[in-house]
Protein backbone atom coordinates (compact mmCIF):
# COMPACT_ATOMS: atom_id res chain seq x y z
CA UNK A 1 0.00 0.00 0.00
CA UNK A 2 1.44 3.35 -0.97
CA UNK A 3 1.68 6.30 1.39
CA UNK A 4 -1.13 8.08 -0.45
CA UNK A 5 -3.40 5.03 -0.29
CA UNK A 6 -2.60 4.58 3.39
CA UNK A 7 -3.38 8.24 4.12
CA UNK A 8 -6.66 7.97 2.26
CA UNK A 9 -7.60 4.76 4.14
CA UNK A 10 -6.90 6.11 7.62
CA UNK A 11 -8.75 9.32 6.73
CA UNK A 12 -11.81 7.24 5.76
CA UNK A 13 -11.69 5.38 9.09
CA UNK A 14 -11.29 8.54 11.14
CA UNK A 15 -15.04 9.17 10.91
CA UNK A 16 -15.81 5.91 12.72
CA UNK A 17 -13.08 6.50 15.33
CA UNK A 18 -14.55 9.80 16.55
CA UNK A 19 -17.48 8.24 18.52
CA UNK A 20 -15.07 5.76 20.12
CA UNK A 21 -12.79 8.62 21.17
CA UNK A 22 -15.79 10.46 22.64
CA UNK A 23 -16.79 7.36 24.61
CA UNK A 24 -13.29 7.07 26.03
CA UNK A 25 -12.69 10.71 26.93
CA UNK A 26 -16.25 11.98 27.51
CA UNK A 27 -15.11 15.39 26.25
CA UNK A 28 -15.25 16.74 22.67
CA UNK A 29 -11.91 18.57 22.78
CA UNK A 30 -10.09 15.63 24.38
CA UNK A 31 -11.69 13.31 21.83
CA UNK A 32 -10.42 15.48 18.97
CA UNK A 33 -6.94 15.50 20.50
CA UNK A 34 -7.02 11.72 20.93
CA UNK A 35 -8.19 11.24 17.34
CA UNK A 36 -5.46 13.53 16.02
CA UNK A 37 -2.79 11.77 18.07
CA UNK A 38 -4.06 8.38 16.87
CA UNK A 39 -3.90 9.47 13.24
CA UNK A 40 -0.39 10.85 13.73
CA UNK A 41 0.82 7.62 15.35
CA UNK A 42 -0.81 5.52 12.64
CA UNK A 43 0.80 7.58 9.90
CA UNK A 44 4.27 7.60 11.49
CA UNK A 45 4.07 3.83 12.10
CA UNK A 46 2.54 2.92 8.74
CA UNK A 47 5.49 0.63 8.03
CA UNK A 48 4.33 -1.60 10.94
CA UNK A 49 0.92 -2.13 9.37
CA UNK A 50 0.65 -5.36 7.38
CA UNK A 51 -1.30 -5.28 4.12
CA UNK A 52 -4.32 -7.56 4.17
CA UNK A 53 -5.03 -7.06 7.88
CA UNK A 54 -7.86 -5.04 9.36
CA UNK A 55 -6.82 -1.37 9.30
CA UNK A 56 -9.84 -0.29 11.32
CA UNK A 57 -9.02 -2.69 14.18
CA UNK A 58 -5.39 -1.53 14.08
CA UNK A 59 -6.52 2.11 14.42
CA UNK A 60 -8.90 1.24 17.29
CA UNK A 61 -6.03 -0.51 19.09
CA UNK A 62 -3.74 2.50 18.63
CA UNK A 63 -6.47 4.81 19.97
CA UNK A 64 -7.20 2.62 22.98
CA UNK A 65 -3.52 2.27 23.87
CA UNK A 66 -2.94 6.00 23.40
CA UNK A 67 -5.85 6.78 25.71
CA UNK A 68 -4.56 4.40 28.42
CA UNK A 69 -1.04 5.84 28.15
CA UNK A 70 -2.36 9.39 28.49
CA UNK A 71 -4.51 8.40 31.47
CA UNK A 72 -1.62 6.69 33.26
CA UNK A 73 0.60 9.70 32.61
CA UNK A 74 -2.07 12.02 34.02
CA UNK A 75 -2.42 9.86 37.17
CA UNK A 76 1.34 9.78 37.66
CA UNK A 77 1.52 13.57 37.36
CA UNK A 78 -1.21 13.98 39.97
CA UNK A 79 0.58 11.70 42.43
CA UNK A 80 2.65 13.53 45.03
CA UNK A 81 5.72 11.72 46.28
CA UNK A 82 7.51 13.14 49.28
CA UNK A 83 11.25 12.75 48.94
CA UNK A 84 12.26 14.39 52.21
CA UNK A 85 14.33 12.52 54.75
CA UNK A 86 11.56 12.20 57.32
CA UNK A 87 9.23 10.47 54.80
CA UNK A 88 6.15 12.50 55.75
CA UNK A 89 3.86 14.38 53.42
CA UNK A 90 4.51 18.09 53.32
CA UNK A 91 1.51 20.42 53.30
CA UNK A 92 -0.87 17.64 52.34
CA UNK A 93 -4.00 19.52 53.35
CA UNK A 94 -6.24 17.40 51.14
CA UNK A 95 -5.67 14.42 53.42
CA UNK A 96 -7.59 14.43 56.67
CA UNK A 97 -7.49 11.80 59.35
CA UNK A 98 -10.64 11.02 61.27
CA UNK A 99 -9.87 10.53 64.95
CA UNK A 100 -13.49 10.13 66.11
CA UNK A 101 -13.16 12.85 68.74
CA UNK A 102 -16.38 14.49 67.57
CA UNK A 103 -18.36 11.27 67.87
CA UNK A 104 -16.89 10.62 71.34
CA UNK A 105 -18.01 14.06 72.51
CA UNK A 106 -21.47 13.43 71.06
CA UNK A 107 -21.77 10.04 72.75
CA UNK A 108 -20.63 11.54 76.06
CA UNK A 109 -23.32 14.22 75.75
CA UNK A 110 -25.99 11.66 74.82
CA UNK A 111 -25.11 9.43 77.77
CA UNK A 112 -25.05 12.43 80.11
CA UNK A 113 -28.53 13.52 78.97
CA UNK A 114 -29.94 10.01 79.29
CA UNK A 115 -28.48 9.58 82.77
CA UNK A 116 -30.00 12.89 83.88
CA UNK A 117 -33.50 12.00 82.71
CA UNK A 118 -36.08 11.42 85.40
CA UNK A 119 -36.07 7.69 86.26
CA UNK A 120 -39.75 7.46 85.28
CA UNK A 121 -38.76 8.39 81.71
CA UNK A 122 -35.28 6.85 81.58
CA UNK A 123 -36.29 3.28 82.48
CA UNK A 124 -38.95 2.76 79.79
CA UNK A 125 -36.83 4.64 77.25
CA UNK A 126 -33.77 2.45 77.85
CA UNK A 127 -35.87 -0.72 77.73
CA UNK A 128 -37.36 0.40 74.42
CA UNK A 129 -33.87 1.31 73.18
CA UNK A 130 -32.65 -2.20 74.07
CA UNK A 131 -35.39 -3.71 71.90
CA UNK A 132 -38.28 -4.43 74.25
CA UNK A 133 -41.79 -4.01 72.87
CA UNK A 134 -44.21 -1.55 74.44
CA UNK A 135 -46.32 -4.37 75.89
CA UNK A 136 -43.24 -6.08 77.42
CA UNK A 137 -42.18 -2.81 79.04
CA UNK A 138 -45.70 -2.20 80.35
CA UNK A 139 -45.87 -5.72 81.83
CA UNK A 140 -42.40 -5.47 83.36
CA UNK A 141 -43.01 -2.05 84.98
CA UNK A 142 -46.68 -2.73 85.86
CA UNK A 143 -47.83 0.32 83.93
CA UNK A 144 -50.58 0.84 81.36
CA UNK A 145 -49.25 0.65 77.77
CA UNK A 146 -50.41 4.23 77.10
CA UNK A 147 -48.29 5.49 80.00
CA UNK A 148 -45.25 3.62 78.64
CA UNK A 149 -45.73 5.10 75.18
CA UNK A 150 -46.18 8.59 76.64
CA UNK A 151 -43.06 8.34 78.83
CA UNK A 152 -40.93 7.09 75.91
CA UNK A 153 -42.28 9.90 73.75
CA UNK A 154 -41.51 12.51 76.43
CA UNK A 155 -38.01 11.08 77.00
CA UNK A 156 -37.29 11.33 73.28
CA UNK A 157 -38.61 14.89 73.20
CA UNK A 158 -36.44 15.91 76.20
CA UNK A 159 -33.37 14.30 74.62
CA UNK A 160 -34.10 15.98 71.29
CA UNK A 161 -34.34 19.38 72.98
CA UNK A 162 -31.19 18.84 75.05
CA UNK A 163 -29.17 17.55 72.10
CA UNK A 164 -30.35 20.01 69.42
CA UNK A 165 -26.75 21.15 68.97
CA UNK A 166 -26.14 17.89 67.06
CA UNK A 167 -29.11 18.32 64.73
CA UNK A 168 -28.12 18.05 61.07
CA UNK A 169 -30.09 19.77 58.37
UniProtKB/TrEMBL annotation:
GO terms for molecular function: DNA binding; sigma factor activity. Residues 11-73 form the RNA polymerase sigma-70 region domain. Residues 110-158 form the RNA polymerase sigma factor 70 region 4 type domain. Pfam families: Sigma70_r2, Sigma70_r4_2. It comes from the Bacteria. GO terms for biological process: DNA-templated transcription initiation. The keyword Transcription applies. InterPro entries: RNA_pol_sigma-70-like, RNA_pol_sigma-70_dom, RNA_pol_sigma70_r2, RNA_pol_sigma70_r4_t2, RNA_pol_sigma_r2, RNA_pol_sigma_r3/r4-like, WH-like_DNA-bd_sf. The keyword Transmembrane does not apply. Keywords: Sigma factor, Transcription, Transcription regulation. Belongs to the sigma-70 factor family. ECF subfamily. This is RNA polymerase sigma factor, sigma-70 family. The lineage of its organism: Bacteria, Pseudomonadati, Bacteroidota, Cytophagia, Cytophagales.
